[in-house]
Batch of 4 targets.
Target 1
Amino acid sequence: MQRHSAQLDTTTWLGANFWSRAGGPRMWTNYDPHLVRRELAVLAEHGLTMTRSFFYWPDFMPAPDRIDDELCAHYADFLDAHREAGMQTIPTFLVGHMSGENWYPSWQQGRDLYADVWMVGRQAWFVQRMTERFAAHDAVCGWLISNEMPVFGRLRGEPPAPREQVTAWAQLMVAAVRAGGGHQPVSLGDGAWGIEVTGRDNGFSLRDTAEFVDFVGPHIYRVDNDVVRQHHRAAFECELAAVAGRPVVLEEFGLSTDTASARNAGHYYRQALHGSLLGGARGWIAWNNTDFDDLADVSPYDHHGFELHFGITDSTGAPKEPLREMAAFAQILRRVDVARCRRVDTDAALLVPAFLEKGLPYGYPEDRPVVFDALRQAYTSARGADLPLAFVREVDGLDPSAGLYLLPSTRQITAPTRNRLEELARGGATVYLSYLSGETGTTRGPWFQDLDGLFGVRQQLSYWVQDLIEDDVVEMRFEGDFGSLRAGTVLRFAVAGSPDARAYLPVEPDGAEVVARDARGRPALLRYRIGAGEAILSTYPVEYLAAKAHRVNPEDTVRLYGALAEVAGVRREVTVEHRAVGADVLVHADGRRYAWLVSQSADPVTVAPVVADGTLHTLDGQPVGEVVLDAYGVAVLEIIGG
């Protein structure tokens, strides 16, 4: 199976969202061309090639039929400054929302941004006229319609705009770019926060808008209660954002150094950059270029003080740890010629249930975050197990070429999918599912038919009364060898989550082999050989339990997934025994192969990677045996031979 690796073109974007520290969002009325050039020079010196820039809408369009020529002249100079620095920029039109505050043109007067025909027309007019002014400039490398339109077009607490209105609005805005002569790639700037990525419907659908845009741009800021999951968040959401097959650009990511130490800020940037590359991203734009210490009495910073320090440089222009990490990443991108690399193919599929992105009749919206959390934890564990995953959407049908299908803490799949999984198992695949009772107090248990027949068991459930997990730690003691796990091995899983979901599935084997039992002697993992393949059932929702636990990763699901990979015969190009170190591979168009080793250990570790074919060498060609990784460190090596 191919994993998503779509590239915009032969250019790879690496840059920063840009406001000059002279003015922030009001930089165009306080424009300092010399300071802008100094700011760009620092970015260029550290290997950044582009920025994302913003037309502050109330200033650029002071009346419904007028554009401010003086500000446009400033922006033209801004473009010239990029050319002088050897950089490019992506203009963003409808801004709009910025750093915790919304600014609307005074003439809008509360008109709806999506449904009011006159207001939509004024937006399209602005987009077209601004494109006409700047499309021919060689410093423009793309276009974005808005900045986080879901929180600009609809305030928090308001119902989201209907999808059909949002999609029509998006089509008209992109058409305005093309009508203005914009030939560069275009996207919406919405943050990719729609239902296909988050499970929450905000009116923006990546599927619905895919025919209009050239790339999708996730904005990654959500919090977590686990460091390792947080490190993998950008990669995971980039994987989900590839639902429509468009190239993925990590359009916004970053942190305020008021909310993390300098050292941990560097760790986060390193992990987000390399992780999202391995997760299919092909562009990175940090938030943002500079700190704004001189703007503490100016909105939005007067009420969102932590927004003053999202910069990759400080307020004097000196680089911070995030920019140093971006500079190191830029060197790696050049060394491996990443624009001509793709992710290695895989035999393993992570099933994304239709319930995440479809409003099925009498489904419960509150179930969607549970699906998201289980998938995210499964992805984190798979990374630790060196198990490359292809995301398979139930909505699109199951790709029959996988050897392993993972359904982590899953209770909601459609009836046809359940039957298709049995067909795939009979045809030689391995199907793994861990039971989840559900987080809601209604319709507990599996929502699909004949779990017994698929897994060779007789479930012993009472009608909608869950069987609570009694222990603080679930144990799986293996009665026989299972892949890399030897008989007598004990895996342990911390118990967390809501009372409704902290439940196990009582079963009796009916053709299945009990592979592992819990501490009370009950079946915990069962293996049912069916046709040419097999179906493997965990009676505990191990991914859900970990997803709800605090600072739990790396945990023993890593070892379970490694064993599943061996049982299913999944090819792993590089493996590392240490469960805190994950490995993955990119393949260059000329056949060169590059291995990434990514540590999730807070302490330095030394590992001895095993390569399926070939040997490891540094990028300078020196043979490598053991590899020393610093805290949360990354090593990139070339695989030669094989």
Target 2
Amino acid sequence: MSPRHIRRYLSAGTGLAAAAALAACAPQPYPDVAVRTFLLDWQAGEFEAAARQTDGDPEEVAAALESAHDQLDLAGVRFGLGPVELEDDGATAAFEAQADLGIGDPVWKYTGRMELNRGGDGWRIAWDPSVIHPDLGAGERLAVNYDVPDRGRVFDRNGEPLVGEAEVTEFGVVPAELEDGGAGITELAELLGEDPAPMTDRVRSAPPEDFQPLVLMRTKDVDAEVLSEAEGITGVQTREERMPLSPRAARSVVGEVAGTAEHNISSRVASAYQAGDTVGLSGLQNVFQHRLAGTATTQVVTLDADGGQTGVLKEWPGAASGALTTTLDLTAQQAAQDALEAMPGRAHLVAVDVRTGEVLSAAGDPASFDNDGALNAQYRPGGAFSIVSAAAALRSGAATADGSLACQESTEVGGQTFGNEGPNGVWAQPQTLESAFANGCTSALAGLATDVGEEELRRTAADFGIGADWRLSLPTYSGEVSAGGGAAETAGAMTGAEGVTVSPLGMALAAGAVADGTWHAPRLAVDADDQMAAEAADGEKLDGATVEALRQMMRATVERGQATPANLGTVPVHGQVGQVEQTIGGDATTVQWFVGYQGNVAFAAVAEVDPEQVWDQYALVAGNTFLQGLPAGYVEAGYAEPKTAEEPGSSEEQEGADGAEGGDTGEGAGGQDTGQTPGQTPGQSPGQTPGTGEQTGAEPPIGG
């Protein structure tokens, strides 16, 4: 741990109504009256009045009491009178103190004592610094010291860091070197466009000779002129540090870390915040802020005139920061990010382990901190939902996989007309449920709506996790089937065009259920999501005949149907595509899907496209590129349980790219031996089109 000393300042609370009833200047006939009057005035912040109850110089005593208040940066203090013992013309009094060190800090409780002498003007307290605290000596002052642990790291399932270290410039001050009552803090705040209040709060009670970092900025974003001006302010210094702030991948999942007041951190996090702290604002960095940040070890200490520590009066041990292991695989995440580079608009790609529901990748384009749609975007699924509606037709007996099925260019159900997604020329040909599924004859599925019924469709969707009660540590959307009860509404839901909304993650899990024969609750953050997955519970084993028929249908789609470009590799790809119109953000949008699985990896790719610019099957392209970007043998891999990473790890392991999400992750993909021929994309069969290149987006400022 690297110590970082922090100050806090809050207005003193009085909490008293009785002080005014006492004649502070009058001689006190009894020692307990003198002590009570002194403590009440001290508690109320009436330091001069309290000083008049002592035999010391009133100005010096008042200054000492006020300085102790500021040195501890007290939010308030309360006293309780203890026993008073008389001895000749003297007395000894005890008292109980409760000093509130501020929001988020402990209350310091201690027993104090003071000597009293009786003279011609009554009883007075014999002034000595030990009146403030028994262990405070002449020439010493109080301070609050915080030892803050280094921020914990976020790792993928293999112990690879998902957050790289960034070069950071710390703008701070040495309190003892400040002039004009801390005017340098205000000057620094104005230069950097910050609020001076939290910066001043931090400095008030820290050890005066210790550097206090107040504002953190990525070094590459620091203007040379600003740096020069800052270093010209009396008391201000700058230092270079390396901190784990920059996501290497999965930006929206890992989340944003900020360290400046300009991002209004105090209003965005539940815990207390100080200038210079690093706080997770989104994603896992926010959800697991307490684990990743730990808590400071807090000490009340005494310092000599030179600022050297002479003693520790009280210590509250903090909690060490900890690592967070995810189920993400940097290899799959990188492949997913690369696959979305060529998309014409917003797009998402999720991959899961079909046997466990563990999320292997959750990528979005743009790769911004707020684009978390891979987990929770609400889309109409279109023909991709035929995985569920075909299962409902089979389970209800409304159709068989090889039975004859009417497939027209359009069909009318309940007074509403339903068309098809697939290419022209296949309509009116003899169809089976399998060929209709493979060719996108959604009108055939719509025609089965009356025989299937809304209730059966809902039950089947729930068995595939759509609308089921599952969640992750990050916001998710499990989907909804709201057909409305009528024949037309049920037909709309059967085609995925109306009455159904899903998320990319939800559809990837549904494809995984076909691959494994059982739906599995998702997992992302190891330990935390384990419990939620257990509460959601995996689904019951799906009907074997239905699953086998779905596998054949999804394979037919890839072999000879709408998704033939995905027929690649030595491990068969199973999938379904879809295209549906949806209004998103007030704009008409074409939503394209490619949902499927290869080996042990299930995936869902979705692309938003301007209806006037639908030149290609973009989601299908993204899914293909993703599969081609995986190393040889990846989809057959028998993944081990995500291993818990040790903290802080080797310095070599901690080195991450400062900035570019999707930066170099090692040889091949994820540093694995791909076993490919020269020039061949990992996982690509000879003669296939390589996937898109490496992503090199620029890293924003801290919190930006």
Target 3
Amino acid sequence: MTRQHAIHRAFGSRRRTQALRRATRRALREWLAADGVIWLHLFKTVTAGLLAMGIAMLLDLPQPRIAMTTVFVLMQPLSGMVFAKSVYRIIGTTVGMIAAVVLGGVFVQQPELYIAGLTCWIAACTAAAMRNRHFRWYAFVLAGYTAALIGVPLVQEPNGLFLAALGRGAEVAVGILCSGMVSAVIVPRQTGSLLERTLRTRYLDFTAFASGVLLGRLERGAFEGRFARLVDDVVGFEATRAFAFFEDPVMRSRSPLLGRLNGEFMDVCARLHALRQLLKRLGRDNDAIAPMASYFRELAAWLGERPRRGETDRDYALRLADALEAWQRTLPRHVRETRRPLEAEAPGALQDFDTSAELVWRFTSEIVRYSRTYASVTQPRLAQEPRTTRYVPRTSLYVVAFTFLRTVVVVATLGGFWIETDWPSGGMAVIAAALACALTSSAPHATRMAAQMAAGAACAAVTGYLYTCYVYPDIDGFPLLCATLAPVLALGAFLATRPRISGYGVGFSVFFCLLAGPDNVIAYTPDLLINNGIAIVTAMLLAALAFAVVFPPRMKWLVGHMCAELRRQVVIACRGDLAGLGQRFQSGTHDLMHQLRLLLNGDRRAHRRALRWMLVTLEVGHAVLDLRCEAQEAGWLSSRDARWDPALAQVQEDIARLFEQPDAQKVERALISVRAATGVAQEALDAVHEERERRHDVQRLLSHLHFIRSALLDRDAPTGALARRRSTRGPARVRASR
């Protein structure tokens, strides 16, 4: 008995030990996936910064602190981001060096004209950065403030301008090389692996989301919020794809396929939204929708299946695509059988039934295409994909113009004050203003970002004063210098990784390096450091004030024009050339909505209004594109009935006018033209009833026209509200006339 008890105790102790090991490994994995990533990023950033400073000192470059500053501006958690930033930083630095030399040579001994030219150059580069986002943004802003960093300190000494430009280029190059080397060598985090995880998560989440939508499990608010996050997924995926292009030749070869995958994801999202909106408008108990309920449940069941144990992502996607294709092949026959009783019992519901059946067919086709492309991405070897799709980001020209004007106001104010007062630290204030305008240009809350940078710069000035007076004089040798700088640099890098307070970290890291970063021969001039610190904080606060007062990004007029840009995507769908129009429409709509989401974050009412305009824009624009493509395929209809082409052109023109400047009268005109085109197509359907292919062509045209009409009349859409307002005002005017 004692021996058995001892065996049981030993066995239980072993099980507890194994459980403890598993729990420890699980906790370690969770820590590595969360906090461990941050600590790794801090270690790599500080290591790269100190290495850049040491190499610049070894090469006896004029300002090693610029190499260290470059690292803190450049380092990112993923190596692909660092490589992408490095490429564009080299381009921006080169262009900025050339601009500094040209401006200094043209306006030699003319400080007023030099400041005017420099202001226009910085403002133009910052505005161009807003037009060209992702890391192309970085090349433009760097071209702007590099000219200020090189030219402003030597505005009165043009003879040293060329040598200063060469020195600055060498320092920046050292920082770029150190950042790339450390990021690629020390525990590299590949953008490609993140992209693969993102693709898998997005595919599984979307299929589950689509299954819930088809079963009617999502309320309107939940659907709108989830669809808005899908918009962010589209834009974020495109940015990640751009990073991966610089990182790995395999990802570079797959980049066109990934671009096609993102385009197909936008298409399938638009189809799902259109189907959900039709179900919501008609109601699941409607005579037209109720017969389709079994098809919705079957489709939802396929999409709701999860990967089996041991099944790869590729096998799961191919299994789902094969199953949906087999189900889709039987769909037309089943739909015809379901439709026959409606022809006799409820002929008025046929149009809604046909429209819903067409949307189910198209959504299934889109999800099959998306699944097969996703499976292709996971293949080890791929055939070269032709570049057939291109994501087209769109930034409102009003935003670009206001960015230019705000930058002109800030830089010109400080530059004019410097010239008029001969302020000793005025040059540093102009440099800080250029940095503030450049680094906050893409921030959704530029005022808060600039204020945080001002606070970070103030802390950097105080810390730099303490280091200059009490730390640098008491240390000897490079190892001790690195040991004393590491905690301060790590603190700034840590704050920069926190999204809501990143401005403090950016301001502290950048301006500590500029103000108190060590050179080969350290100048112990605390009075100059304090004056420069005051100038930097003043420039940052002035920039924050200008961002809040001079053309603030949230002013209603600007938001209204951005919403107009969003609606104008439908105008493009109506009037643009069909070649590649679908991709331009989808990417432009998603990109503009993403900008509005960032801009209106916190203003729930305005955000909801913009989101509903985006949803109706997607609905109507996609339906118009389908209508135009089907009309092009059914070219025989225009020769059979001369009224069809003018009726279709009138539909496109009236819808374009409605979305250019929406009002109740234009909604009514659009509905009238849709009704007229529907009448022409209905007559053609009766005439070709015995011709199977042509009958199907006309039925598809009627489905698109009917869907456009129902989308315009949707009670939750802005156009539906305008239509209701028109209908309520009509009888009042009639009674008044009587």
Target 4
Amino acid sequence: MGQTLRPSTLVPRGFVVDDAASGADATLITVRPLSIASACPGCGTRSVRIHSRYPRRLADLPMAGKPVLLVVMVRRFHCDAVLCGRRIFAERFDGDVLAPWARRTARLDDIVHHLGLVLGGRPAASFAQRLMLPVSNDTLLRVVRRRGSPRFVPPTIIGIDDWAWRRNQRYGTIICDLERRKTIALLPDREPATAQAWLSDQPQISIVARDRGGGYAMAAAKALPKATQVADRWHLMENASRAFVDAVRKSMRQIRTAIGATTINLDLLTAAERIQYEGYLHREDTNAAILGLAKAGVTIKEIVRRTGYSRGLVRRVLRGQRSDVFRVRESSLELYLPWLDAQWSAGQRNGAELWRRLAVQGFRGSLRVVTEWTTRRRKAEKVDGAALSRAPSARTVARLMTIGRDNLSKSETVIVAAIEGGVPQLVDAREIIAAFQAMIRKKSLVDLEPWLEQARSGLVAPFANGVVKDRAAVSAAITSPWSNGQTEGQITKLKLVKRQMYGRGKLDLLQARVIGAA
């Protein structure tokens, strides 16, 4: 047999329905509590002596597509305790039913809280209107802030990394429990002292996964000297790739000599390339001035003071990382160059016609891109065949030297072969970086010491020296199953929440939404 639906089952626990009326805008239900006594909030003494009654209006869950208003006939009681300062008090209800001074029932407040966690202010308010829950965006955020973030279980394995309040200007710190796969804390900055203070309150932590920056390493070493630090494997791979790009930048003069591009033919340059070439000449003057001071034994600090250039620029010059002529971006024609070469060889020289044919194939670029390409090809055929070609950028050279030979075009294969023959130390650097990345992928710790001996004397020696300084964390990254990749994923979730609020959410609101939703 089916159970009979009673009116009391539609209202919160502990109340009985006295009356109900359905209007055009809302359903009004009058209820009274079932209990015969209530505890004094001051002393805790239970009282049954009623002083008076008054109606209390509450919002409850909607019903049949209409908002519901509960009218609760609340009683006032006498407190008979001699030592209690209260003479009369209003009765209290269970916290999971109705909080003191609340204008919503606890079950409705839970829904409002979850809407605020997931959607934020205005989106949640708009959605709540569709659910027949009239609540403002300020109320939603106020509920989220009031409840805050739940207490976390003390972690033993954590990941720590920085995240951007505003890129290149202001950063915070995120801390994740890697075992439970959740964020447990957000810190207002990424200063080592702030991270150290938080870590000092968690002495049970045994493993700290972090990035390659020295700030968090120093904080963890001071706060948790017995904890194992694990360098992030992705950052190790990325640092290795960047080290090879830096090695290519240092070798750009030799590369240009190897591929026959020690001089620039101005007749082949577009207007944009002329501007870049003039900037290169200006950079060469700057580089010569800085290198001249360095050869004279002047310190970096003194070079910065004399020239007015930044410390970072001076370091890049001394490392040979400012010798690129052109800063080349990948062209939108890259995928269509074989087809264009074939059309050019077949005698089709009209740029507008080539562009129309490319558009049929799905090319989304403008007519100007194609006409500039045809103009450059036409000029190249008119100049002397002995004219020297233009060298690709350092990043392009690094890409060509590290991808599979099967993916290279004929011209790219010729360039790579010329570089490998003319700059053998760059080939050695490529092999060293490839060996390091293979060691990380295979988690082969026994290869670390031989690799360090080989890498310290080549173009990637600065990278090898960095590995030596952080050797314990790098060794742990090779052998440990933990890494900071999960923390990077939590940062992505944090960015989504931050952008939902147009970047205006303060730390307490961000923490409540990110940690509370987890």
